[in-house]
Amino acid sequence: MDWKEVGSAILDFAPTIGGALLGPPGAAMGVGIKALAGALGMSEDEITPEAALSRIQADPQVAADLKKADIAARVEIRKAELADVADARARDVAITKITGKRDINLYALAWLVVIGFFSTLTVLLLHAVPEGQDPILYVLLGALSSEFARVLAFFFGSSRGSKEKTNILADIQHYNKGR
Fold this sequence. Notes:
Blueprint: H1 3-10, H2 15-22, H3 27-40, H4 49-58, H5 61-99, H6 104-126, H7 134-156, H8 160-177
Helix pairs in contact: 1-2, 1-4, 2-3, 3-5, 5-8, 6-7
């Protein structure tokens, strides 16, 4: 038995935790296991897929506890996503401070995602797609759509003003050091 079986069993009433357990091993799965352990009253060291599944099947109250834990897990995953964006912005500011110029790779990659997104949309809207190739284009469109949203969030998100403020403060510090 593995975590994917547990994820399938709880997907209906705890979609965030279930989805994290169904995905590839990584940070999201760790958050899912931690949330599951907390909802089941177990430590992360003692929880196993077998123990979790047997406890879920034995006690109907566990479903309610898992719903609460699912909400908390969703918040933790969102915090991790926001921290990732903040780290990327901090990296951009640090590189600008150190080198005195912006990292062109960041902008090149962002433009590549934007151009790819609109190119795929154009192909889908204006051209007949060969038989059997449309699922590939739809998968590509889905992947590019999520990355397009991340590019927009990075450059024009709600914390864009914060990024600009940080850059201005860095420029002021650099100017004051030179005096």
